[in-house]
């Protein structure tokens, strides 16, 4: 329907008038501790999916809560996966159909981690709304819902059909979602023209369009020794300690200057093209600002191109933690009997998760063998999420530029994202449809960190951006 009159001003004023209601809904959603990584919180994840479905039902959407089965836990037990919410608004075959993907599960957060406010009580400080999941990804999901609501409230016809796929396991690798997408390829997804994901942030204060995400291969490396924890005075010096073995092998993954030491990994990475170098060179990115935001005095690189390239399009290794290690306050003198390291490798084109799994497992086994330790090492890959890369010349990106121009009156940055949207590549491969990532989060939202926030400005102007974006997509030529 390219010819409809676009009543942007009216819609925009309506969004402004609803700001307090939007904040209250976000408060209600943030209050649900939908941490998908903690099975004890699974009832909250189920409640979060029900709340999402209910919200869309009240709006008159055709809503389904899709059962995607069970999750197997490391101890062999099983637990139900949160259902996936699908919804549909409009089915006019003359219109484009977009499918908005988002998630309403969150990373863990505790006040004791160093939050200034209760992570599950959305708190407004100077226009910033602090709470776990505020930016990742509850406010962006709500901004999309408010987009449809705004059209409905003003009785303005939606310029495109809008579908939603909202899940509750993104933060742990989107367990079960691949199979659901494959199963519904010829049903729910059959009339979808484009997929839109708003689960990332801007690079600076300038709005951005995102054309790539890194993948993530997440590993557990378990070293098991004595049958139980031991007194370090009584037994220290006589046993070969699992923790020493584990730290030893972990230290062979990456050099102090950031070089991945696992054979074959660096060789698989697509080389940086001249065009990429030029693009990165032209992007506005303040290194001092970046350093002060995260509170460090020195970075791995001190020029913009290297920093952006290593954030977006080179792999990296992160060691996240060690399960079984003594980490409480005080000075317990123990030799832990079994320790499990958790580390991940963000991967990029042309790396492949199956290959990374083999490279890491073979390498760690060979490094461990050289230690001639009697302890047992077990390496498992628990998440293998692929990277995703789009063609920025696609009309979806031209539409994005026009929408950003209308709402913010600037040209957006074209950026990549260092984080992972595990399902992005599957969406593209299974449905054959193009994806755009249209972020509304701020560059300093503190995703996964203490004091995560979403600003009122980004929440409200972001909703307007989505409204404008639907109008632009309606103008694209239907295949
Ligand atoms: N907002 C996207 C995001 O944070 N995604 C997670 C997904 C993930 C990857 N490995 C485990 N979870 C991320 O950490 O990038
Ligand atoms: Zn997210
Ligand atoms: Zn996240």
TrEMBL record:
Residues that hold Mn(2+) 1 according to the record: 136, 171, 448
PROSITE patterns on file: ARGE_DAPE_CPG2_2
GO MF term set: carboxypeptidase activity; metal ion binding; metallopeptidase activity
Keyword Hydrolase: yes
Cofactor(s), names only, from the UniProt record: Mn(2+)
Species name: Umbra pygmaea (Eastern mudminnow)
CDD domains associated with the record: M20_dipept_like_CNDP (cd05676)
InterPro entries per the UniProt record, alphabetical: ArgE/DapE_CS, CNDP/DUG1, Cyt/Met_Dipeptidase, Peptidase_M20, Peptidase_M20_dimer
UniProt lineage: Eukaryota, Metazoa, Chordata, Craniata, Vertebrata
Residues at the active site: 105, 170 (proton acceptor)
Family the entry assigns: Belongs to the peptidase M20A family.
Protein name (database record): Peptidase M20 dimerisation domain-containing protein
Alphabetical GO biological process terms: proteolysis
